[in-house]
Recover the amino acids of this structure.
């Protein structure tokens, strides 16, 4: 689960991680009140709150450029906020449709320090799981304010990693290693050790999947601040964090994915025109692959799980048919334990209930498969049977492409 | 021999009184597996009955192991309590803990895996279908079925199968069985980012197993476990290996059902993994329908 920057920073503050002072509002009439709480000595930042990166370089559908704007005066901040709120921001990560900005976050602009070479004094810090070792890893770099993938590719020597032993947690010497690796001394060094320690505590206590601060910066007044904050949580651990669940913003999630999750279905929309309905994540992924292999284009990932019921199958059909791009459906079920006939009955009912007119190819294999096939054949519906995954995929691709 | 478990392996089920655990305990009993104990804290002394089988229930794993000689546990405990159930297995010094449970918090698994390092107990899973060593009976009856795989699709033979995904494992097994090729052991290692036994661990066991003559390795996008295994195969494996990687069409950054199936970096993609498989001499199946045939192209059985 992802949260907004302003929510992440509120959590940071709770854990003692220093951030610039800010205020988030959802309506224009709150703008003035929010700005009144802030010290604008060095100006303000006006930040669109959406769950996608690349906001600064994004463009609104009304032509306004930049989802994150420095504003020297209160008047300018108000003007920028008016241009953003309620409008749709398109960034490299949102796709063409973009996201509607429903919250504006005002912060005090920091008096950014400069390095000896004249560059901004910005750093990178992240905490995530290292899959190779199954341990948390802290990643730090002197190259903040740019894409970390770019740094990793071109100057890997500027990326520093510390692996945390989960048996004992983050140790003081490790926090010092990070601070030394970033070249800090004196007061900033101490602030960095504290910030890393608190940030790790937040990551661990709140079951985060990832915490990323980019940039982390040093101000001319000698303060270390988390200027941006990107936080995601482990979905499996949400049950023990009701405070985190309360931060969920359904506006930022795909309506069909939310609907699917209500029925215990795992659904992800893609750009193609052949929908698939499959049991099991691995089989669902490879059903998409085989559709593409034979020249088709998958419209979605949809896993109905290991013990799919009739209701789930019907719900799955409705979700699939909610996508206007869909021109055909492939059902691929390996009913190891579940009864293929139950699935077949579910398919027949779903087809009748939804009045399906699109080509449908069904591949059933496994337990009680003969009865399942007989049910489909006796239904009087135009359902094409596939003997194997390959056969079914070839049939649906042909039916869709020849239309 | 098979790997990890065989026909005489004595099994316990943690969470045997829950719907999910009970259902699969019955299927294992029907398959002829030596399911000798159940564990549900607070229900010790009760008996799990099915088709004339009477399986005693214990309060603790240690007690179940001591009283029945069970050396392996199948864990069907709900996610909030599953890591605790896993750790109870290592405390009792079992040979093997097989965690079927889906949805265990990553932090719990990070701690559990660290605690089990250097211990005797091997963990398979979590979020896995378990493992099957087929029996010699009709429809492989009499084998050791641990977890949720359908037993009847198997046939005893000489192909080892290792996969993260349940249904893809069944697909490969069924293709083999339909072509008259049986399996030594089929292992589902699970789709989570933190799991106990890796592809490589299982490949090494197959390589050393005299009954296993050939191997099918099924992987997914995300992480580098398949790549690690492929490189080892190139350097050390004496047996023919066929492989498949699911997720060629998966978009970057989206979790494809399995928590571990997310494309993070360039090495995580299906195309990158397939290329490395080919470089390592693995016969790559172009589609999931081609898994058994990909093996039969390089191994005549």
């Amino acid at each position: 689960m992802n949260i907004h920057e302003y929510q992440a920073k509120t959590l940071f503050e709770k854990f003692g991680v220093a951030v610039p002072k800010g205020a988030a509002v959802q309506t224009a009439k709150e703008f003035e009140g929010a700005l009144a709480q802030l010290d604008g000595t060095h100006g303000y930042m006006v930040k669109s709150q959406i769950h996608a990166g690349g906001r600064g370089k994004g463009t609104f559908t009304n032509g306004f450029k930049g989802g994150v704007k420095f504003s020297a005066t209160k008047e300018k901040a108000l003007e920028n906020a008016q241009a953003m709120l309620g409008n749709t921001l398109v960034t490299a990560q949102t796709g063409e449709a973009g996201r509607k900005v429903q919250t504006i976050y005002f912060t005090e602009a920091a008096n950014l320090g400069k390095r000896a070479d004249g560059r901004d004094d910005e750093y990178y810090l992240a905490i995530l799981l290292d899959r190779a070792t199954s341990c948390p890893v802290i990643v730090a770099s002197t190259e903040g304010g740019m894409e970390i993938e770019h740094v990793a590719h071109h100057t890997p020597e500027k990326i520093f990693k510390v692996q945390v032993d989960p048996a004992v947690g983050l140790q003081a010497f490790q926090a010092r290693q990070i601070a030394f690796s970033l070249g800090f001394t004196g007061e900033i060094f101490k602030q960095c050790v504290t910030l890393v320690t608190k940030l790790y505590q937040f990551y661990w206590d709140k079951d985060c999947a990832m915490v990323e601060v980019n940039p982390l910066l040093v101000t001319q007044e000698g303060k270390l601040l988390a200027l941006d904050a990107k936080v995601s949580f482990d979905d499996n651990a949400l049950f023990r964090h009701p405070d985190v669940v309360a931060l969920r913003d359904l506006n930022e999630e795909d309506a069909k994915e939310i609907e699917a999750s209500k029925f215990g279905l795992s659904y992800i929309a893609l750009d193609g025109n052949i929908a698939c309905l499959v049991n099991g994540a691995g089989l669902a992924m490879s059903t998409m692959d085989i559709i593409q292999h034979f020249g088709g284009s998958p419209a979605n990932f949809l896993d109905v799980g290991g013990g799919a019921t009739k209701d789930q199958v019907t719900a799955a059909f409705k979700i699939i048919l909610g996508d206007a791009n869909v021109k055909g459906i492939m059902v691929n079920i390996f009913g190891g334990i579940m009864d293929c006939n139950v699935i077949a009955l579910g398919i027949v009912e779903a087809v009748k209930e939804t009045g399906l007119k699109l080509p449908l190819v069904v591949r059933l294999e496994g337990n009680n498969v003969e009865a399942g096939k007989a049910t489909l054949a006796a239904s009087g519906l135009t359902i094409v049977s596939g003997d194997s995954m390959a056969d079914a995929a070839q049939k649906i691709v042909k039916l869709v492409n020849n239309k | 021999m098979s790997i990890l478990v065989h026909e005489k392996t004595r099994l316990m089920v943690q969470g045997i009184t829950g719907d999910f655990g009970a259902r699969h305990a019955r299927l294992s009993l029907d398959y002829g597996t030596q399911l000798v104990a159940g564990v549900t804290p607070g229900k010790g002394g009760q008996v799990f009955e099915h088709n004339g089988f009477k399986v005693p229930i214990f309060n603790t794993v240690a007690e179940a192991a001591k009283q029945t000689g069970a050396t392996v546990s199948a864990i069907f405990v709900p996610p909030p309590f599953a890591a605790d159930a896993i750790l109870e297995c290592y405390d009792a010094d079992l040979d093997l803990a097989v965690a079927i449970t889906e949805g265990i918090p990553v932090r719990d698994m990070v701690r559990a895996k660290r605690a089990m390092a250097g211990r005797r107990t091997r963990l398979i899973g979590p979020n896995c279908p378990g493992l099957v060593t087929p029996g010699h009976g009709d429809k492989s009856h009499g084998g050791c079925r641990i977890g949720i795989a359908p037993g009847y699709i198997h046939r005893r033979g000489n192909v080892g199968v290792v996969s993260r995904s349940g249904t893809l494992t069944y697909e490969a097994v069924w293709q083999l069985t339909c072509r008259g090729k049986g399996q030594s052991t089929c292992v589902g290692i699970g789709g989570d980012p933190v799991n106990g036994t890796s592809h490589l661990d299982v490949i090494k066991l197959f390589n050393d197993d005299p009954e296993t003559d050939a191997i099918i390795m099924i992987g997914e996008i995300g992480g580098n476990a398949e790549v690690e295994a492929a490189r080892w195969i190139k350097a050390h494996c004496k047996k023919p290996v066929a492989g498949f990687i699911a997720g060629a069409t998966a978009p970057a950054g989206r979790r494809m059902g399995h928590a571990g199936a997310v494309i993070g970096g360039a090495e995580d993609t299906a195309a990158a993994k397939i290329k490395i498989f080919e470089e390592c001499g693995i016969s790559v199946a172009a589609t999931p329908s081609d898994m058994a045939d990909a093996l039969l192209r390089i191994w005549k059985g």
Notes: Residues 21-108 of chain A form a domain with the Dna Ligase; domain 1 fold (CATH 3.30.1490.20). The mean pLDDT of chain A is 93.
